[in-house]
Specification:
The protein has six helices and 29 strands. By secondary structure, the protein is mainly beta. The chain has four domains: about 230 residues, Roll (Nuclear Transport Factor 2, Chain: A); about 70 residues, Nuclear Transport Factor 2, Chain: A; about 70 residues, Roll (Nuclear Transport Factor 2, Chain: A), CATH 3.10.450; about 60 residues, Nuclear Transport Factor 2, Chain: A (Roll), CATH 3.10.450. A hairpin with a 5-residue loop joins strand 6 and strand 7. This is Putative beta-lactamase-inhibitor-like PepSY-like domain-containing protein.
Length: about 475
């Protein structure tokens, strides 16, 4: 469950029972609406309308091919949801797997299949009651990927799960969103792609949960009817509050490249990191080799050089000390380093020869930390120093699809056959690889998929 919190928003609301229309109830709907409904389902029986928003939005319940059905339509004739009410036995396997993994011991209260315009399956909306007593609505797309999640508070009133009231939280089109909400999203994000919106009607109170995406980030935004933002979350390729991101030489800002060329002519780029705090760049740390030295250069967010230091222990007795490289390390030292660090890069090797043997001073970088080891040829450590990443920060490194564990690639190939890889990252905390996050494209849709450090599936969102 702890990983699920990286990618899912929990939207808290209360739910009250609304009276169902009886066959004798009369609801006035425009001819445009009734004609479209008759065209879509000419052989529907036992049809009843219920007004969701006065003279603007209606829910229509009916029977079709021996199934209980429903749809939501607005006064422009736009149908935002087709629903088929299923039995619990018809719960999709992928949804059951998700529920069992993330909400063990919960009870499925209702299963609704959403249909597309061609009446083919377009996903599911499922209501569950957790063993802790909370009601949760889960919305999945046709691939079984989570699109939206809502949680009721424990003190919420009993939810009526009959076919007459199970669809009280209804999907709406972008056109059905209040102008205040559309303006708020536009102001917040600029241009965006609309994914889904769900209207929860509680007596006279309306709450809108809107899922949108921009670039490579998906946002779940919860608004009151007046456009007041209640809650938000996001996932995908975005800035977290505190993180360190590796940066390649080609991606360095032009001003930093220019200074390096001018002040350190002939330098060899070794490693670069961007330190971010509260989502904003704090500084750049660049490690280069220049004139036989390994230099640690620090630039501020305006690309000004603010600190410079030489890395590695200075050994006074130069007559007995030579500069070595990685190939001079003994098998014992190589084995020791490989045991300590899954991936590392040797930056500098100094070898001091004394009567009692050789002493190696080795400077390496691993997971955005710098380590200086002083040891003998049998890898008996005399001293170790480390500087760099704070344990409260996350190191995020971009990866290629070939860098994914086989287990993760197998999942993507099976679940999203034909996908196109867009971007991926791996997250490391205190030297421990904790997760992979990849962004893939299938058709015109983006999917954000998260795996644990070993490539096991954790969560996915559509964006």
């Amino acid at each position: 469950m702890k990983y699920l919190s990286l990618f899912l928003t929990l939207v808290i609301f209360a739910c009250t029972k609304t009276e169902t229309l009886t066959p004798t109830d009369s609801v006035s709907v425009p001819d445009l609406v009734s004609n479209i409904v008759k065209t879509e389902f000419p052989d529907a029986t036992d049809g009843k309308y219920e007004e969701i928003e006065k003279q603007k939005l209606w829910e229509y319940r009916f029977k079709w091919k021996a199934k209980d059905m429903g749809l939501v339509i607005n006064n422009s004739g736009i149908i935002s949801e087709y629903s088929k009410f299923l039995t619990n036995a018809e719960l999709p396997a992928s949804a059951k797997e998700f529920i069992d993994k993330n909400y063990p011991g919960s009870t499925v209260k209702s299963v609704i299949e959403n249909l597309d315009k061609n009446k083919a399956s377009d996903g599911h909306k499922i209501l569950i009651l957790t063993k802790e007593g909370s009601y949760i609505t889960l919305v999945f797309d046709a691939k079984g990927t989570l699109v939206l999640l809502m949680v009721l508070p424990k003190d919420a009133k009993e939810v009526n799960t009959s076919k007459d009231n199970a669809n009280k939280a209804v999907m709406v089109s972008e056109a059905d969103l209040p102008t205040a909400i559309k303006t708020a999203i536009k102001t917040k994000l600029g241009d965006y792609k609309f994914i889904k919106a769900l209207l929860l009607k509680q007596d006279t109170k309306k709450t809108y949960t809107v899922v949108v995406s921009k670039d490579l980030t998906v946002y779940e935004l919860v608004y009151n009817e007046d456009g007041t933002l209640i809650k938000e979350s996001s996932s995908g390729q975005k800035d977290s509050s505190n993180q360190i991101v590796e940066i390649a030489e080609k991606d360095l800002p032009a001003d930093i490249k220019s200074l390096l060329t001018k002040e350190f002519a002939g330098y060899l780029y070794q490693k670069g990191t961007v330190y971010k705090k509260d989502g904003k760049i704090a500084y750049y740390q660049i490690i280069v080799k220049h004139n036989g030295k390994v230099l640690n250069l620090k630039f501020d967010d305006k690309f000004k050089l603010i600190a410079k230091s030489e890395l590695g222990t200075v050994i006074a007795d130069a007559a007995t000390t030579k500069v070595g490289d990685e190939k001079d390390l003994t098998k014992e030292i190589v084995t020791y380093l490989a045991t300590k660090h899954k991936e590392y890069k040797v930056l500098k090797v100094l070898i001091k020869t004394q009567s009692e043997g050789k002493t190696f001073t080795i400077l390496i970088s691993a997971d955005n930390m710098l380590y200086e080891y002083v040891m003998d040829d049998k890898a008996k450590t005399v001293k170790v120093n480390s500087t760099g990443i704070n344990d409260t920060m996350i190191s995020i490194k971009e990866i290629k699809v070939t860098d994914l564990p086989a287990k993760a690639k197998e999942y993507l190939d099976k679940k999203y056959s034909g996908y196109v890889y867009q971007k991926g990252t791996k997250s490391v905390v205190a030297e421990k690889l904790v997760s992979y996050q990849v962004i893939i494209k299938l058709g015109t849709d983006l999917y954000f998929v998260t795996f644990d450090g070993e490539g096991g599936f954790l969560a996915a969102r559509k964006g």
